[in-house]
Design a protein that fits this description.
The radius of gyration is 21 Å and the shape is globular. The protein has 15 helices and 14 strands. The protein is of the alpha/beta class and 370 residues long. β13, α12 and β14 form a beta-alpha-beta unit. The C terminus is likely disordered.
């Protein structure tokens, strides 16, 4: 089988300068699964940045769709006319097109930086809805997102597939945890999660822990929360990286100082369609995790992950406090988290699920229901 994967979020503009990067979304949803398929199946897999498609190296969609059995890419509304060209040529040349979507576009919070593009009534949201209704095959990260997409677009449920995120524990692999007298609460996230970090119950619960235990510190990567600035040098903020391949080494370095991973999420429609990727990252570092009681993390808990799920300030305080005062519990839960993802969310699970899906779509093979 010949597959073309296309990175869409490979550049950003900062102070008027276009900078190339690999986005986390492209890595987890396009690059990682296709790289593993190439490695384990022997399939002919190419991965391009979308700029390549519109460059002089590539004549048009007719040439591309004649060459490949499957084109797999994330959803992006930037060039809707290219979508029309792609689909016409793909149908003519019997090339299957599969899109991937990892966020709920219809319930984005107004504090999210893409809200202006996708709030109700915008042209971009109307175009996105039309394209996601039309595309033949769509992969999403979890069931709630599938249900949301089907409800808002009217697309066929049977052509909307759920494949969750997986974690490469050779990539997320801090070599050695730092041993000191501190207990450090660790959070890693971008500015899209501002409402989550500023959740009142989370702030009150963490504040109670910080006031009670003077040896507890906070370490955030990627976002500053001014509420915690009052703790001075007990609160450290590390600027994140927009390039995923630079972010992971940074993350591996700083997570060595972490003792407890926290995942605050507002309980709203948008977050009910999020994946549990932060849990996978923290578990890869053998951290115990305290998470908000939302859909994705309830699913992890049901599948056997030892995650305290919390909502109110008292619950945040008690779950974190229990870990602060008990180093053995931290060690045990961190190890159980690591074994959980190794058994259920590893490299092997990733490529096999994608292999099965691509064979079903491209070769019309019977898919096994799990």
């Amino acid at each position: 089988m010949k597959i073309l994967g296309i990175e869409l979020n490979h550049s950003f503009v900062l102070d008027g300068v276009v900078t190339e990067r690999t986005s986390g979304v492209d890595y987890f949803r396009i690059i990682q699964p296709l790289t593993l398929l190439r490695k384990h199946t022997g399939w002919d897999v190419d991965i391009w940045k979308s700029s390549h498609i519109f460059s002089h190296d590539c004549k048009n969609w007719d040439d591309i769709t004649k060459k490949y059995d499957v084109i797999f890419t994330g959803y992006n509304v930037a060039k809707p006319e290219a979508y029309v060209q792609l689909m016409v040529m793909a149908k003519r040349n019997n090339c299957k097109v599969i899109f991937d979507l990892d966020d709920d576009l219809w319930n984005i919070h107004e504090d999210n930086h893409v809200y202006e593009r996708f709030h109700k009534g915008t042209e971009d949201l109307e175009i996105a809805t039309a394209i996601l209704r039309d595309v033949g095959h769509l992969v999403v990260t979890q069931k709630n997102l599938k249900d949301t997409v089907v409800a808002h677009t009217g697309r066929p449920s049977e052509q909307t597939y759920v494949i969750d995120n997986y974690i490469d524990t050779t990539l997320y692999n801090p070599k050695k945890q730092m041993d000191d007298d501190r207990v450090t609460l660790f959070y890693s996230g971008s500015r899209t999660h501002v409402p989550d970090v500023y959740n009142r119950e989370f702030l009150l619960g963490v504040d109670a822990v910080m006031r009670e235990f003077s040896h507890v510190h906070l370490l955030f990567i990627g976002m500053f929360c001014d509420v915690f600035a009052k703790y001075g040098d007990r609160y450290e903020v590390v600027e994140g990286e927009t390039d995923f391949m630079k972010f992971v080494p940074l993350w591996n370095f700083y997570v060595r100082f972490a003792d407890i991973g926290v995942v605050p999420l507002e309980d709203n429609k948008f977050n009910s369609s999020k994946s549990s990727l932060k849990y996978l990252e923290y578990a890869a570092a053998r951290l115990p995790v305290v998470a908000s009681n939302v859909f994705a993390y309830r699913n992890e808990r049901r599948s056997g992950a030892p995650i305290p799920l919390v909502k109110e300030a008292r619950e945040w305080y008690e779950a974190i406090r229990d870990l602060v005062v008990n180093p053995q519990l931290r060690h045990n839960l961190g190890g159980e988290n690591y074994e959980h993802i190794r058994a259920r969310r590893s490299e092997a699970h990733c490529w096999k699920n994608y292999q099965e899906l691509f064979e079903k779509i491209a070769l019309d093979k019977q898919i096994i229901t799990k």
